[in-house]
Amino acid sequence: MSALQIAVLALAAVLVFWMVGAYNRLMALRTAIGTAWQQVAEALARRGEAAQALAQALREPMAGEAKALDALLAAEAQVREAAAALGARPVRLEAALVLVKGEAAMGAAASRVLALLEQHPLLKVEPAIAEQAVVLADGGSRLAFARQRFNEAGAAYDEAIAEFPTRLLVPLYRFGPAGRL
């Protein structure tokens, strides 16, 4: 073997090892996004259960506010569907955007129901209603923390796919930017 052939083989070996290393790094970052998504999904599920239970508990005493309760349930269903879509592939940008829209609707509907509940102080003292209202209200802070971890994992992944020379491999691996919540 000539020196040129050895040099070409050594260069090819270095290139292959670098490609495998870059792929493994990107996959580890994608896994971190999936792990962070699990925390978001748990917070969303807990808040969704509280919203459903609160809407059912308030259905009879606040019959005049059925539209607000229906809006809360519709927004919760929208968030649940978007979360299921994003849960299948937590890196999908489009699914994250749909979830963000659903979250906006959920926040508005939950705020409205909680404001209506404030106008009925006798309902607030019932244990079932009070507990679900607290879970619904506190769900936002837990969700904010989980969302922050998800966004940080997505930012780390996006930085990695934008770095040179890794960005040369992105089309080969078919990786795209991660979504944010």
Automatic annotation (TrEMBL):
Subcellular location: Membrane
Organismal lineage: Bacteria, Pseudomonadati, Pseudomonadota, Betaproteobacteria, Burkholderiales
Organism of origin: Rubrivivax gelatinosus (strain NBRC 100245 / IL144)
Source organism, top-level taxon: Bacteria
Protein name: LemA family protein
PANTHER family named among the record's database cross-references: MEMBRANE PROTEIN (PTHR34478:SF2), PROTEIN LEMA (PTHR34478)
Record's GO cellular component terms: membrane
Subcellular location, principal: membrane
Stored SUPFAM superfamilies: LemA-like
Record keyword Transmembrane present: yes
Keyword Membrane: yes
Coiled-coil regions listed in the entry: none
Keywords on record: Membrane, Transmembrane, Transmembrane helix
Pfam families in UniProt: LemA (PF04011)
Membrane-protein topology: Single-pass membrane protein
